[in-house]
């Protein structure tokens, strides 16, 4: 009853409001397409599902939508990754001579890139499910994801570097204790720093893209993987210059 | 305190940890291949420029493909029993085309870097990622689709597992594809 009165009062106030204010009020209604709101009300299908159908439904050209939405970010990602590769190309000889780091290169890219994919897709799903409301740092789901990812980064850094050092020590090249310690710290610093940067990039970009009514999955994964690649190569190149 | 810890180390955490373990092992296999064939793979100048981009591109395209399929499965827009639906076919076509276009762009970027920054003319650097991209597409696209649906059917969240799985398989596939093409062309 109270709600009805409030609604009535609001309607009354709006009828007396100047035209330019009415335009601002009407902006809110455009959050979803009017047809989408209508279908949501009539058939009780969630707006998120309808949004997915809007993107990839029967009347849309799925492959064209995917290419159109992904191509720009993928090309940008390629350029960024190539820049990372260029940084490594500058220390080519030193890098190729540190066997454990060469062995670890795909693993590092993988593990760090995976965090990009995990954070991006979990955050995309949270956005679709409407779990992201209010202040981000107070959101328990986001906080939990951040702690999980950081703990995992430390565990993976320790595990992967120990395995790579172990493999190299059994090869004909062998490995000195000093080199092993340097490799261990390079991997640990690299992984923890990048994972944290990645988290903030994914979340900020995810919210921005979702608000633009696009599918965050199409943007976030290429974006985070390329940021990761570039940062990974750049930090590796920097640490190689500093430590070797 | 104990409740907080158990909440943190939940099913999702364990899923990611086991997937990351798989990623490390897969990455190390790719790394060993890389270390063994260093003299072949890095024979052409600029391969170190292509390599991270190529591996990331494969992971990005297959990762977004898997993420779209996962969202569709969770929203019940995609039926896990119907793999020939228009939505899935469109996704496959889109991912395949993206793989080809981006591989070509990567080659062009490396070619331009080589020419303008290093001063060497290497047209082969355009062809290598392009052919390797097509080759890896044929392996990774169907594998991603069936792995995502399989994981979903098993009651797990594909978002936690498929990313690391695809990245790992993608890295090994990328390096092996590049190596095969290098062996074929040189």
In a nutshell, what does this entry contain?
The complex is a heterodimer of chains A (244) and B (186). Chain A has helices at residues 2-16, 19-29, 34-43, 47-56, 62-90, 92-97, 99-128, 140-170, 177-211, 216-243.
Tell me about the largest β-sheet of chain A. none
CATH class group of chain B: Mainly Alpha
Total beta-strand segments of chain A: 0
Proportion of residues in β-strands of chain A: under 5%
CATH T-level topology of the largest domain in chain A? Tetracycline Repressor, domain 2
Number of helices of chain A: 10
Taking all residues together, what is the mean pLDDT of chain B? 85
Proportion of residues in helical segments of chain A: over 70%
Strands, helices and their partners?
The complex is a heterodimer of chains A (244) and B (186).
Chain A: H1 2-16, H2 19-29, H3 34-43, H4 47-56, H5 62-90, H6 92-97, H7 99-128, H8 140-170, H9 177-211, H10 216-243
Helix pairs in contact in A: 5-10, 7-8, 7-9, 7-10, 8-9, 9-10
Chain B: H1 2-8, H2 11-36, H3 38-41, H4 47-74, H5 86-118, H6 124-153, H7 158-185
Helix pairs in contact in B: 2-7, 4-5, 4-6, 4-7, 5-6, 6-7
What does this structure look like?
The complex is a heterodimer of chains A (about 240) and B (about 190). Chain A has about 240 residues and is an all-alpha fold. In chain A, α5 packs parallel to α10 and α7 runs antiparallel to α8. The longest helix of chain A is centred in the C-terminal third of the chain and has 35 residues. Chain B has a single domain, classed as SLC41 divalent cation transporters, integral membrane domain (Tetracycline Repressor, domain 2). Helices cover about 85% and strands about 0% of the residues of chain B. In chain B, α2 packs parallel to α7, α4 runs antiparallel to α7 and α5 packs antiparallel against α6. Chains A and B meet through α4, α5, α6, α7 and α8 of A and α2, α4, α5 and α7 of B.
């Amino acid at each position: 009853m109270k709600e009805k009165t409030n609604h009535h009062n609001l309607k009354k106030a709006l009828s007396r409001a100047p035209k330019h204010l009415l335009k601002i009020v009407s902006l809110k209604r455009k959050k979803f397409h009017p047809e989408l709101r209508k279908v949501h009300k009539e058939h009780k299908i969630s707006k998120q599902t309808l949004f997915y159908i809007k993107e990839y439904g029967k009347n849309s050209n799925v492959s064209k939508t995917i290419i159109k939405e992904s191509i720009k970010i993928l090309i940008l990602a390629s350029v960024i990754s190539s820049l990372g590769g260029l940084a490594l190309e500058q220390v080519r000889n030193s890098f190729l001579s540190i066997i454990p780091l060469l062995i670890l290169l795909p693993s590092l890219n993988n593990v760090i890139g995976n965090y990009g994919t995990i954070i991006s897709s979990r955050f995309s799903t949270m956005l679709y499910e409407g779990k992201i409301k209010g202040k981000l740092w107070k959101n328990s789901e986001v906080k939990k994801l951040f702690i999980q990812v950081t703990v995992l980064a430390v565990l993976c850094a320790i595990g992967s570097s120990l395995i790579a050092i172990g493999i190299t020590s059994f090869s004909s090249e062998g490995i000195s204790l000093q080199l092993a310690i340097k490799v261990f710290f390079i991997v640990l610093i690299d992984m923890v720093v990048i994972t944290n940067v990645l988290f903030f990039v994914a979340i900020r970009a995810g919210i921005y893209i979702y608000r633009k009514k696009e599918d965050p999955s199409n943007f976030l994964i290429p974006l985070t993987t390329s940021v990761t690649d570039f940062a990974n190569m750049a930090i590796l190149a920097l640490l190689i210059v500093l430590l070797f | 305190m104990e409740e907080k810890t158990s909440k943190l180390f939940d099913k999702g955490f364990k899923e990611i940890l086991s997937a990351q373990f798989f990623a490390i092992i897969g990455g190390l296999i790719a790394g060993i291949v890389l270390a063994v064939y260093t003299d072949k793979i890095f024979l052409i100048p600029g391969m170190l420029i292509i390599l991270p981009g190529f591996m990331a591109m494969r992971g990005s395209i297959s990762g977004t493909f898997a993420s779209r399929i996962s969202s569709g499965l969770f929203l019940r827009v995609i039926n896990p029993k119907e793999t020939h639906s228009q939505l899935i076919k469109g996704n496959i076509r889109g991912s395949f085309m993206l793989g080809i276009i981006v591989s070509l762009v990567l080659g062009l970027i490396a070619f331009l870097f080589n020419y303008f920054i290093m001063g060497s003319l290497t047209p082969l650097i355009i062809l290598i990622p392009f052919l390797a991209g097509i080759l890896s597409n044929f392996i990774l696209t169907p594998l991603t689709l069936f792995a995502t649906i399989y994981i979903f059917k098993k009651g797990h969240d594909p978002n936690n597992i498929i990313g690391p799985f695809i990245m790992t398989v993608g890295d090994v596939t990328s390096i092996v594809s590049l190596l095969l093409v290098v062996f074929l062309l040189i």
